[in-house]
Amino acid sequence: MTRALALRPAIVRRSAAILALACIWLAMLLLGRGPLDRAIYQALYAGGRPALVTIARIFTALGEPTVLVGGGFLVAAWLWWRGRGRFALGLLLVILIGRALSEVQKYSIARPRPTLDPHLVVVKTSSFPSGHATSSMIFYLTLALALTAAGRQRRVAAALAVLLSLLIGLSRVMLGVHWPSDVVGGWSFGLLWVLLTLSSAERLFAPHSPKPPKQL
Fold this sequence. Notes:
By secondary structure, the protein is mostly helical. It has one domain (10-204). It has eight helices and no strands. Mean pLDDT is 88; it is low at 209-216.
């Protein structure tokens, strides 16, 4: 009974965070492409400023699907080699299913991309939510939470992962290929997905001493 009472505030906080993120995602879907969205977009657009375009392209490359999916498989392969195959499977499922759900949203919602200015990188899919913002939040935050010990180390790693995803998302607006609401919607869904899957994933991510590497 005491343990259940101790867990109740954490459950309430987690449920409130999930509800808040879902509301943010819905607000970005329903209210996006309005005057505020356009004003923020125009303030962030980097066209005509080569240095900013270069910086934005560097950060956007860190959120490319090939980089994130490839990175997920590389990390999973390393974990499998270390004898932690169950851990690797959990990591891949969180990353790949989250990425797939992002693509389902894109094709089902089919929001047009902004056309106020020239796109500074090539894009082919619909706009909402930003795949770079969604996938980078899922990928980097999942790695940060899964591969670090609980405590200050995990908090720092999670903060850095979120910061990197924020910069990747901003780069998409700077390059003229997303509305700000697309990016905020991507961040909110990415965080929501991690929160929804974290409890189950932690059973796979439970810390234990890894087996020694296989001898060649």
